[in-house]
Design brief:
The chain has 73 residues and is of the alpha+beta class. It has one domain (4-56). The chain is 22% helix and 14% strand. The protein has a two-stranded antiparallel sheet. It is globular, with a radius of gyration of 14 Å.
Length: 73
């Protein structure tokens, strides 16, 4: 079995927000996380506070931060 990292949902977190904030993962990673956490989809769009979500430890961020654009100096 592959190693996992537990993430804990904060108030108002969706699965996508939790994955992005804690691991930098994007929409392409959600299906794998759902497979690893059976029954989590039944909790609804907003995860209950304190829900533990297991994420594969070997995942790397699929999205990178965009460069900062400043309108004024």
């Amino acid at each position: 079995m592959a190693a996992t990292v537990p993430l804990v949902a904060l108030q108002g977190d969706t699965l996508e927000l939790l994955l992005w904030r804690e691991r930098g993962l994007g929409p392409n990673d959600v299906a794998g996380v759902l497979d690893l956490n059976p029954g989590i989809a039944a909790l609804g769009a907003t995860l209950p506070l304190g829900t533990v979500v297991n994420v594969p430890a070997d995942t790397t961020p699929t999205q990178t931060a965009l460069p900062l654009i400043q309108l004024w100096d």
